[in-house]
Amino acid sequence: MAHQRICVFAVILVWGCLASSSYHTSVAPPQDLQITDPGLLGSLDVEWKPPLNVQTFNECTVKYKFEYRNAGDRDWKVIFTRKLKFRVGFDLSRTAEAKVQTLLEGRCTDDVEVQSEWIHATFQVPLQGKLESEVKDFHCIYHDWEYLKCTWQPGLLAPRGVHYGLYYCAAAHERETPRHPRLLPSRIRRARGQRQLPGIRP
């Protein structure tokens, strides 16, 4: 009977040690999540730094779960990665939202995935000009993969004869087209521009 009690006690003790070890394994979230605008008219850079205690987990794999969306969207776009920086596309007329957490798994966690808390960041492009001057019914049509035609209507309170300028991205540089675009534009700035842009061949 005494032998039975000792065995049961030993089993409970071992299980308790393992459970305690797994329970106390935790990982900090990433640091310094930032969203910056490289000036590419739709693409933003999202980057972060590793958690403070990442050096202590030599027997585990450290990954990150990165999610992003525009404010008002129901679903997040999800990326699992070991990288610390991504360039992703956003609708710059709305607030950009991003969040990231640390994922830890391996011998140090008994092969159980441990997740950190989330860290969050937002980014809003400063609006230029009067909000009421923003163009309406903006559309672009790509004809036979040869040229692009973009049309729009003036804003509700745009002054008579206002000139709208079209900005577009090419070869990682922001440009303003004098009369015609050569690539699909990804952002229209407020308060300047042209009413209709016939497409031309590049």
For the structure shown, list the relevant keywords.
disordered C terminus; mainly beta; Immunoglobulin-like; 5-stranded antiparallel sheet; 202 residues; single chain; 1 helix
Description:
The structure is a single chain. The protein is mainly beta and 202 residues long. It has two domains: 27-123, Immunoglobulin-like; 131-197. It has one helix and 14 strands, in the order αββββββββββββββ. Strands 3, 4, 6, 7 and 8 form a five-stranded antiparallel sheet that branches.
According to CATH, the fold-level topology of the largest domain is Immunoglobulin-like
Output the helix-strand order.
HEEEEEEEEEEEEEE
Mind telling me the C-alpha Rg? 27 Å
User: Would you tell me the structural class of the helices and strands?
Assistant: mainly beta
* Low-confidence runs: 6-23, 171-202
Indicate the CATH class of the largest domain: Mainly Beta
Q: Architecture of the largest domain, according to CATH? A: Sandwich
Fourth-tier CATH superfamily name of the largest domain? Immunoglobulins
Shape annotation: elongated
Number of strands: 14
